[in-house]
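Hi, here's the filled form for the chain we discussed.

Project: internal
Contact: R.S.
Residues: 160
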Amino acid sequence: MADSEAKRGSTLSQSSVSIDLASAKVQIQRTGQQEFHTRYLADPHSATYHTLTGEVKPQFHWRLGWSRNECITVAQLRTGHSPLVASYLHRIGRQQSPLCPHCRGDNETAQHLLLCCPAHMQARTSTNYTDSTDPRRMMSFLETIGAVTLPPHPPTPDRE
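And the returned structure, exactly as it came back:
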C-alpha cells in the first residue's frame, strides 16, 4: 500500500510553496490517520466493535493501561475471531456446533455472548453491563461468567 501511495503521490502536481521536513511529517501522519479512520469505519468489524464498546476510535482501549491479554481479548471479540465464542470455534473446526453452549437458543457470536444470551442475564445485571459500553465492565462480566481470568492488578505505591 505504501508503494502505491508513493507512486500516486509522485504523479501529483508539486506546489511551488516549500515545506519544511517537520511540517511534512506532521501532514503525512495526519493524512494517514484520517485515511485509517475512514477505512476502519467502513470495515464491517468496526460495527461489532462499536456495538461492544460504544467507541468509534479503535485505539481507545489500548490507552487504559490494560494487560496484553486484556487487549487481545477485546481485539478478538471485536473481530469475531475469539476462542470465547462457539461460532468462531465451529468456523475453524474446533467445535462441532456454533450454538451457544449456555442457552442452546442461538449461534454464539460475540454479540450474543456479551449482549443477548439469556443464560448470562444475571451476570450482566450484577456487573452492570446491561446498558454499558464501558470496557472495564465488559471484562468484569467476562470474568464473572468464567470466560476469562484476570490477574490481580499490582497495588499502586503510596505517595509521600
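Let me know if anything looks off before we file it.
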